[in-house]
Design brief:
about 190 residues, single chain
């Protein structure tokens, strides 16, 4: 069984923000694979289904970004999910807007949601799909950049990126992470 988590903030107020690339990707997986993400458990919204003959749980933590790990830890423990089958999808300022990269493991960087995940899982040995959002023009404006509404000229680029991120997750489930990395990380 795979646990596929998109990081973000509760959607009513944050739906059109760079920090919600993980949620946007989960929404696309949900739509394409007909898995409703509408049940509530462990401070998260989730849905169960099968993708490419793999049982999956799609999760959108509702704890706000900085506490995402709290929700994820409970899902991992309750369902006894192997850490290698726990896939985190998140925005990444260190990648150019629209670039998507899969990593098998790694540190959280400056991402507070990922810091929470690493702290709660007590490891960096889990796969992740990173959706590039780029860096703001002025680094001091980072909070407004990731939480502010996406301007129209960036919207199309980021929409395409979350489609690639969705495809990346589906490819991991279909052919494994190494093959998915070879296909997506070009």
């Amino acid at each position: 069984m795979y646990l596929i988590i998109g990081l973000g903030n509760p959607e009513s107020d944050y739906s059109n923000t760079r920090h919600n690339m993980g949620f946007d990707t989960i929404n696309k997986i949900s739509n394409e694979c007909n898995i409703e993400v509408n049940k509530k458990k462990f401070n998260g919204l989730y849905g169960k289904g099968i993708i490419n003959n793999e049982k999956v749980i799609l999760v959108k933590p509702q704890t706000f970004m900085n506490l995402s790990g709290d929700c994820i830890r409970e899902f991992v423990d309750f369902y006894k999910i192997d850490i290698n089958k726990t896939i985190i999808i998140h925005d990444d300022i260190d990648l150019e807007p629209g670039v998507v990269k899969i990593r098998k493991k790694g540190g959280p960087g400056t991402h507070n949601g990922m810091k929470s995940v690493v702290k709660n899982l007590n490891t960096t040995e889990f796969p992740r799909v990173r959706v590039g959002i780029g860096m703001p023009e002025h680094k001091g404006d980072l909070i407004n950049y990731v939480l502010g509404h996406i301007v129209d000229e960036d919207k199309e680029i980021l929409d395409k990126a979350t489609t690639v991120a969705k495809d990346a997750v589906l490819e991991i489930l279909k052919s494994g992470i190494d093959n998915a990395m070879n296909k997506i990380n070009v």
